[in-house]
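Z., the sequence and structure:
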Amino acid sequence: MRIGLHPDWGGTYFLPRLVGLPRALELSWTGDAIDAEKAWRIGLVQRVVPDGHALEEARGLALCLAAAPQASIRLAKRTLGASLQRTLAQCLDAEAEAQEACWATHDVAEGLRAFVEKRVPVFGGAAPLEEAPSPAARAFE
């Protein structure tokens, strides 16, 4: 805006989805630069880390994601990515399908065992189970 141009690089698509339409309009109209703290506060960025710690923070997130149940991660990425184009009913249907797919993995059995045993789960078996979880196990859902 400060040089007479329009937002580009997908800004009109992504910005309102990240910060809401009123903030996206204000940022676009004023062209004001914002600091990291404000970017975090309005939802433009997910994290703010001290100078020189970005790589350490990224590695920590990568390790967290690598240790997570992969079917759950993959399905959450898929359903959340599509959610802005779906109705509530469509989102609920997609959630139910994803939840059913998760129940068919070894990871859910490990997660439930770890919960009962009060320990950190060790995921890695996203392959389908040979048999369905018991009704008692499904009560945790």
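The first helix runs from residue 11 to 19. The mean pLDDT is 85.

Let me know what you think.
H.
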